[in-house]
Amino acid sequence: MHSLAGESVVVIGAGIGGLSTACYLADAGAEVRVIEKNEQLGGRASRLEKDGFRFDMGPSWYLMPDVFERFFATFNRSPSDYYDLTHLDPHYRIFFKDGDRVDVTSNLERTKAVFESYEDGAGEALERYLEKSRENYEVGMEHFVYEDRERLRDYLDLDVARQARGLSLLGSMQGHVENYFDHPKLQQIMQYTLVFLGGSPRNTPALYNLMSHVDFNLGVWYPEDGIGGVIDGIADLGRELGVTYETNRPATEIKGREGAFCVETPKGPLETDLVVSNADYAHTEQALLPPEKRGYDADYWASRTYAPSAFLCYLGVEGDVPDLAHHTLVLPTDWEHHFEQIFDEPAWPDDPAYYLCVPSETDDTVAPEGHSNLFVLVPVAPGLEDTPEIREEYRDFVLADIAEHTGTDLCDRIVFEETFSVDDFADRYNSFAGTALGMAHTLRQTSLFRPPHRSKEVDGLYFTGSYTTPGIGVPMCLISGELTAEKVVEDFGTNRAGT
């Protein structure tokens, strides 16, 4: 990177994208200050600690280890300098609501046998599917994720066309998976990762079959101290590079221009040359900027397709939960109805697909001795009415569903409990309509169709995080930080224009 020595940068928001961007900019020589609205770093990757229990409040899957290795290697470090990793086996467990139970393990031959038990030839089909997924991952990451192609003409280059040949760029994940598997349960196993992208099988591009390579071939891992431990590691790296952090300091307004910005906060103004916002894109534009400096109007944000919100229960439980794996999915045999209640006719799901995380199965520091730590996550539509009465009723409904379909009755053993849902996402993270993730990865909201890293109206203002490319998820936000920093250096690095 060219030098940013002499430039000062305020990063608004200490989510993954903001923390990543800060590291790259500090490494390039800028004076970087990160301010965070809430009491801790991490954004949606916050932690809840109480009564001896420690919960990752948001992301809980450590996927795509190569992305983390690449990030730390940029600064001549390794993830192992900051945290250890444990490979999970099984990767995850699935309870189907008709009574079937499937463990997806690191042993491909065993997984092929499971697939074959549902459908003749499905084992070999899985091998073909994963080979295509690996190809899409390797080409897609190198040429379409780590390279930010933000204009249509960037896709008209002959080299780009050559690299894209054979990729599953068009069509939906539903159609792509149906080319390999007929059995609906096998289709669900290959599509569950869409929850990490905030989409459904029918509105997510087929390109994202690359997530199966992530799942089956790269493995599922648990970082020491959970995702919160990863946040600590990235923040420590930032400090080593000279980044300073301040929590409990929200931004209330962005004034000025490149070279003379003023970020207003309740603790007083911050003067800076450049600004990077890791706050939600819509919040930054609609709440922190005046109308004439917004790249998009309110109608634009209202017209987007948003990823789900979530109903979360953080539970401290007496005793063990032996039937549950570290990562457990509970799926109805037909999950179309649940997706319809998220994207088409928003309602609290009456036959939900949901996720259970039990880190105490792997890490005995997350719960007091003799207790289990788990949280329940039900994807729900953003913008739903969210009241204490609705939450209490839905909590009872979900706990009964868990008991019925996993054999794990939690109700009489709960010693700690806290819920988090639509209104909390809006209040704590300023997220549009309380979405948990941001804009969904539909075909019209992928790649160059996502909002850009550079402000369209304000020179020296940049954006990072899940609304920008490459999109949703911890690894993608880590890469977003790199792409944002590249834009800043391209615009303001001292070697620009031959100087």
UniProtKB/TrEMBL annotation:
One of its GO terms (molecular function) is oxidoreductase activity. Its EC number is 1.-.-.-. It is an enzyme of class 1 (oxidoreductase). It holds the Pfam family Amino_oxidase. GO terms for biological process: carotenoid biosynthetic process. Gene3D superfamilies: FAD/NAD(P)-binding domain. Keywords: Carotenoid biosynthesis, Oxidoreductase. Residues 16-488 form the Amine oxidase domain. The keyword Oxidoreductase applies. Pathway: Carotenoid biosynthesis. The keyword Coiled coil does not apply. NCBIfam families: crtI_fam (TIGR02734). This is Phytoene desaturase family protein. The lineage of its organism: Archaea, Methanobacteriati, Methanobacteriota, Stenosarchaea group, Halobacteria. The gene is crtI.
